[in-house]
Amino acid sequence: MEDYDKLLEEAYGKVKRIDTKSERFEIPKVDVQNVGNKTVFSNFIQVASYIRRTPEQVCKFLTKELASLGKIENDRLIFNRKISSVQVQDKFSLYVKKYVLCNQCGKPDTEITKQDNLQFIHCLACGAKQSLGR
Ligand SMILES: [Zn+2]
To answer: Which residues have C-beta under 5 Å from ligand 1, the single-atom ion?
Structure first.
């Protein structure tokens, strides 16, 4: 009987493990509208906190990649030119792949650390550390 319980426990353990694995991280969808000559990224603060990066870090990357000035207003990021939501989504996904997801295990449980003027992405799940350059 003990063996049977053990088997059950093992089976349950396996199921549980598969469950956590299937809880996959998905890159959040950006909510972007063109207003006049400007572009409003409405859920900016929300998606930045979801990927656990500061709004400033994400803003710096997006404005550089999209060649536009931008300012954070309340929960939104406002670009000073017209940009399609597809372009914003593209660059946002790029940011997540480069600065959020671990290139070893693919998990989003990472943090950005600085050492000797170099930036590193440090994975809290597997411990991998990768240089991002300056
Ligand atoms: Zn990792």
So the answer is: 102, 104-105, 123, 125-126, 128
